[in-house]
């Protein structure tokens, strides 16, 4: 029996050791991003004696990054130039010029708009597939399902030509529109909305709801957790898009991935500035992750459904 | 008894069939407005789907049989109402080359290099990552582990990291004078040319991808583990199984479908690798030893502007990924059955 | 508030080639304020009929009128009906207050305060005023049931529709809610159509009962009527618990020869005149054990306390008898039974129609209890003819 307990102790020790090692290996690069962003390049790019303690150069690194002329990483106050002349006074109406968006704001804006619009589209389509009968429903659904197995972000060549033709190059719409009708999103919403009892919708019909009210007053509120999980999937999908934005966006409209790519591909690579950019890109999402852990996890698991 | 059935049906089987048909029909929703409502809800998604997904899928295939000569300007349709005019031009100026684009792949050494690199990364990275993810999942699933939620969160943190942003950290850490080599040399080991040797630069990609995705796969595997009924372990224990045997005879077979899913999605992920080699190896350095297929497609299409050939390459990649996905769907289907 | 009239209502499902008739030319008149129960086996079309009345299904042909308002082509939300669903269909994301008030919010222009007051009144009436802020998942089955009722009542509809509303409750709560529902319906005096597959519930609750089978209305009448004077063998079999014993017998003048030792002399042979065989029905409660009668073999005895159920075999025919609790025949014991001729049912062997029912003997006249006998009669008429029509369709 003593042998048994000793073994158990060794086993537990090894297990904890393994988990702790994993945690350290996971955290070190994250910590290193942060530390490097607060140091000068020479302080951390040194094979002799790199420091692991944060320094105080974050702000100067940030200023240097902001001073770059090929990349605007964080936005700045803009100048409004469109006025209506009322004689004694002017009223500026070009509020969109209030703030010149940098890569961070662009990415958040694009991913946010994409997430909201895609949620709307996918949930509406999912609702139609789950709760209505119409001709060709099955063929249409299977056609959408079939594209689930395609890596849709690889269809950049015709999209590039298409965007050139309709004049959407260098527009945020070019990176929002193509993936709005997200097959995975439609599929997930359809699966989840099938669990809404028909009686619930009929009950609402008898209570006087229109078909559209059924959708946004009954179906959407009951699908809150699925919508939350899906919104994480959609947000991260857009947040991580690199190839097509790289192709279609020009300077001034860069999203985070393209902006960082510009920094890395520049003539002279300033690692301290890049680390500031990486910190600013990664840390906010980490915080979000800590707050919305449950949704992240269910988003990951929802993305791994198979049927 | 026959007379009794004559009350509502000529023979019982007909009556049963009728009843069955009625019930299944009765479960359907009524179709208000003859099914128009369904179309209305579907319309926005359907239009976007058609223009931005269905069309590109078909057009990429079409393009793969042509050589791209430039953006099209041939007028296909011209509407001029006086107030408003619209000119639809052809999407591209093309010349037909038949199967040339596909034939060219056989002699394209850079394509072969990209295939080799991708396969190399695949063979090393996927088993390594799945093994690690499984070990972490099993470790976290152990009943004695405290702070399970905290550890899970920590291990899953990289999931939220932007693909390009995190790559820069590896670019930094793997410099000749970077953190990793500092640790190695302080341990008395030789420094490794992580970014300049063709072998080690691939290993750098392997390390980065493993760091980014192990937690993701661990979460899926952990959910799979938690779906295994506890009774199975108890039964195995009563049958005298030790820890290793329980893992071998209960965990692995029960987890098989999830494991396969993780394997297949990771494999597909490797075929889609783009951000990491672009950022860490600056586009395939050294000497194209890390160039991946997607990266090669990008170069062919948007640096060299050989869109026809790039489309053919895309289709080969899509074919590979689709076959893998189909395998995954089948595996998933079996597990549900 | 108004009555409901169904005029040759027909509901077919499916498209052109494969149609299934769920409701077959049903004529039914429901009086203002009446509590009508639609009862029948599953798949008989009772729920479809209810859904047609609700406007959740559009009818294939026929008309539905509320009072003198033709609602056939109106959608559910324009019909002024309220429905209680089997699973209550409470909106899971709304609390009780919002659930009850939802219909008022959508279909009236009242202010939030007015709606709130009405919701509270109804909640008080149902004894759920303390639950108003809770979500449905925090409530017990009985409480959810009350909320569903409240949601229907608050709208003060012309018509209440209930689709097996008690089937998810446990037995004790069910009988309690049964009484409560009846009282409530009586107080509110709203025309109510109630669907159930449980004939006991139907008998206990309905002012009148409409028995359906195979998409057709078999009979409409008071509980006593459908029990004592069923129009055909199906109704006789469906109503009454335990079920009526029915078997074939050959007719020889006034003598009936059934399975085993069964022989019976009719004092009045007119119902079976001209027939070679007939279906004989005897309700278990009409059987009494006697010293000298028709012999059968006892199988199982189920003591119920106040009475005993005896399961016996009569020449291969299973017979159920409800007997005096003091009589306890053992297994395989031979017992003799008899029954009064007034209690005997006879059915046509081909059509199943009743040739003779209990009504012949000692039935009190129920005319005064049934508000509209014409309606009831028109319902009973269609019976078997319609059935045959429908069978032909299926065969095609």
UniProtKB/TrEMBL annotation, chain A:
The chain crosses the membrane at residues 12-34, 108-129, 141-166, 172-189, 227-249, 269-292. The keyword Transmembrane helix applies. Its main location: membrane. The keyword NADP does not apply. Keywords: Cell membrane, Membrane, Transmembrane, Transmembrane helix, Transport. One of its GO terms (cellular component) is plasma membrane. It is a multi-pass membrane protein. It comes from the Archaea. It holds the Pfam family BPD_transp_1. It is found in: Cell membrane. Residues 104-292 form the ABC transmembrane type-1 domain. Belongs to the binding-protein-dependent transport system permease family. This is Carbohydrate ABC transporter permease. It comes from Halobellus rarus.
From TrEMBL, chain B:
Belongs to the binding-protein-dependent transport system permease family. Pfam families: BPD_transp_1. It comes from Halobellus rarus. The chain crosses the membrane at residues 36-63, 119-142, 154-173, 179-196, 307-327. Its main location: membrane. Gene3D superfamilies: MetI-like (1.10.3720.10). It is found in: Cell membrane. One of its GO terms (cellular component) is plasma membrane. Keywords: Cell membrane, Membrane, Transmembrane, Transmembrane helix, Transport. InterPro entries: ABC_transporter_permease (IPR051393), MetI-like (IPR000515), MetI-like_sf (IPR035906). Residues 115-328 form the ABC transmembrane type-1 domain. This is Carbohydrate ABC transporter permease.
UniProtKB/TrEMBL annotation, chain C:
Residues 385-396 have a biased composition (Acidic residues). It is an enzyme of class 7 (translocase). One of its GO terms (molecular function) is transmembrane transporter activity. Residues 353-368 have a biased composition (Basic and acidic residues). Residues 348-396 are annotated as: Disordered. The keyword Metal-binding does not apply. Keywords: ATP-binding, Cell membrane, Membrane, Nucleotide-binding, Translocase, Transport. It catalyses: D-xylose(out) + ATP + H2O = D-xylose(in) + ADP + phosphate + H(+); L-arabinose(out) + ATP + H2O = L-arabinose(in) + ADP + phosphate + H(+). Residues 4-239 form the ABC transporter domain. It is found in: Cell membrane. Its EC number is 7.5.2.13. Pfam families: ABC_tran (PF00005), TOBE_2 (PF08402). GO terms for cellular component: plasma membrane; transmembrane transporter complex. It is a peripheral membrane protein. Its main location: membrane. The complex is composed of two ATP-binding proteins (XacJ and XacK), two transmembrane proteins (XacH and XacI) and a solute-binding protein (XacG). Part of the ABC transporter complex XacGHIJK involved in the uptake of xylose and arabinose. Responsible for energy coupling to the transport system. PANTHER family: MALTODEXTRIN IMPORT ATP-BINDING PROTEIN MSMX, TREHALOSE IMPORT ATP-BINDING PROTEIN SUGC. Belongs to the ABC transporter superfamily. Carbohydrate uptake transporter-1 (CUT1) (TC 3.A.1.1) family. This is ABC-type D-xylose/L-arabinose transporter. The lineage of its organism: Archaea, Methanobacteriati, Methanobacteriota, Stenosarchaea group, Halobacteria.
